[in-house]
C-alpha cells in the first residue's frame, strides 16, 4: 500500500498537517508513505515512521514546480493521495482514493478543518516525530533542570512582540519556576539571527538555539521545555506538536484559526480588532498571567 501526502512549504502549516498524516499512518501501519513538501518543511517529516520517500520541491515561476513534481509521481499507482495544497495534480495521478483538501481562509481551527475534511472525529492533534539521537542531543544541550523556551521571531514583523518584553517575561517567570534557565529558539539564516539578537544580548546566559539544529532536534529540545512562549510562527506550532506547554502570542494574526494545537496550549491576544491588533498592545503582565495559568493547568 502506497500513500502520497502533498503538504505545505511553510513550517507551521506543515506541522499542523501532521495530525492527519499520523492518523493515516496508524490506520495503515504497513503503508509506504511518500511526502512532498517545500524545503523549509522537509525536516518535519524526516523521522516519520513508514516514510518511503521525501520529495522536496521549491516554488518556480509559472507553477512549473507542480509539473516537475507530477513527473516524479506519475509513474506509480497510489492507494491513497491526500493533497493538503489543493494543487490539482492529484487528479492526474493513478490512485484508488484521493482527498483534495480545500485551502484558503475560513472560520475555525486549521487542524480541525483538516481533520473534518478527512472524516476524522475528533480531529487529530499535530505530532512531532523524533529519533533517540535527537532526544539525546536535546538532553545534552539543555541539561538538567527546568528550561523556559522563548520564540521571539516570526516570518513577518507585524507578528513580533517587542524583544525587551520577552526579557521581562522571562525574569517574571523565574519566580514561578525557581532555577529555570532560558533557551532562545529561532530559525536558520541571518534575518532570524538578527531578530533574536536583542533577546540573546539581554540574557547572556541563554541557551542559544538559533538556527543551529535540524528540525527533529529542535522538536526534541522544545519537548523538554517547562513552557514555550513565542510569537505566531512555525516554531510555536512545532512546540505544541512536540508536547511542550505552549503559549502563543497573537495580534496581527488570528488565534481562532492558528492558535497552537496540543495537549497543553493557550494564547495571549493583543487587544483590538481580531487579527489586526498591534503586538505593542500586548502587555507583559497579560502574558505573564497567561503563562502562569498554563503552568498550573
Automatic annotation (TrEMBL):
<dbReference type="Pfam" id="PF01075">
    <property type="entry name" value="Glyco_transf_9"/>
</dbReference>
<dbReference type="InterPro" id="IPR051199">
    <property type="entry name" value="LPS_LOS_Heptosyltrfase"/>
</dbReference>
<dbReference type="InterPro" id="IPR002201">
    <property type="entry name" value="Glyco_trans_9"/>
</dbReference>
<keyword id="KW-0808">Transferase</keyword>
<keyword id="KW-0328">Glycosyltransferase</keyword>
<protein>
    <submittedName>
        <fullName>Glycosyl transferase</fullName>
    </submittedName>
</protein>
<dbReference type="GO" id="GO:0016740">
    <property type="term" value="F:transferase activity"/>
</dbReference>
Amino acid at each position: 500500500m502506497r500513500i502520497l501526502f502533498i503538504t505545505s512549504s511553510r513550517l507551521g502549516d506543515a506541522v499542523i498537517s501532521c495530525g492527519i498524516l499520523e492518523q493515516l499512518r496508524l490506520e495503515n501501519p504497513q503503508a509506504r508513505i511518500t511526502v512532498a513538501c517545500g524545503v523549509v518543511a522537509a525536516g518535519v517529516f524526516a523521522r516519520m515512521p513508514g516514510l518511503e520517500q521525501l520529495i522536496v520541491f521549491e516554488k518556480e515561476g509559472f507553477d512549473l514546480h507542480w509539473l516537475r513534481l507530477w513527473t516524479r509521481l506519475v509513474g506509480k499507482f497510489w492507494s491513497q493521495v491526500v493533497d493538503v495544497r489543493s494543487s490539482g495534480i492529484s487528479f492526474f495521478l493513478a490512485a484508488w482514493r484521493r482527498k483534495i483538501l480545500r485551502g484558503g481562509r475560513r472560520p475555525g481551527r486549521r487542524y480541525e478543518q483538516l481533520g473534518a475534511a478527512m472524516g476524522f472525529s475528533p480531529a487529530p492533534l499535530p505530532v512531532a516525530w523524533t529519533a533517540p539521537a535527537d532526544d539525546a542531543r536535546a538532553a545534552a544541550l539543555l541539561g538538567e533542570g527546568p528550561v523556559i523556551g522563548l520564540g521571539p521571531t516570526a516570518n513577518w514583523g507585524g507578528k513580533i512582540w517587542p524583544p525587551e518584553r520577552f526579557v521581562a517575561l522571562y525574569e517574571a517567570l523565574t519566580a514561578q519556576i525557581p532555577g529555570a534557565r532560558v533557551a532562545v529558539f529561532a530559525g536558520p539564516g541571518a534575518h532570524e539571527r538578527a531578530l533574536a539578537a536583542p533577546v540573546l544580548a539581554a540574557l547572556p546566559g541563554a541557551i542559544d538555539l538559533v538556527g543551529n539544529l535540524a528540525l527533529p532536534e529542535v522538536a526534541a529540545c522544545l519537548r523538554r521545555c517547562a513552557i514555550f512562549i513565542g510569537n505566531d510562527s512555525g516554531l510555536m506550532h512545532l512546540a505544541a506538536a512536540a508536547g511542550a506547554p505552549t503559549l502563543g502570542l497573537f495580534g496581527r494574526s488570528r488565534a481562532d484559526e492558528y492558535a497552537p494545537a496540543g495537549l497543553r496550549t493557550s494564547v495571549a491576544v493583543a487587544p483590538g480588532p481580531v487579527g489586526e491588533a498591534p503586538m505593542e498592545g500586548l502587555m507583559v503582565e497579560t502574558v505573564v498571567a497567561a503563562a502562569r495559568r498554563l503552568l498550573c493547568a
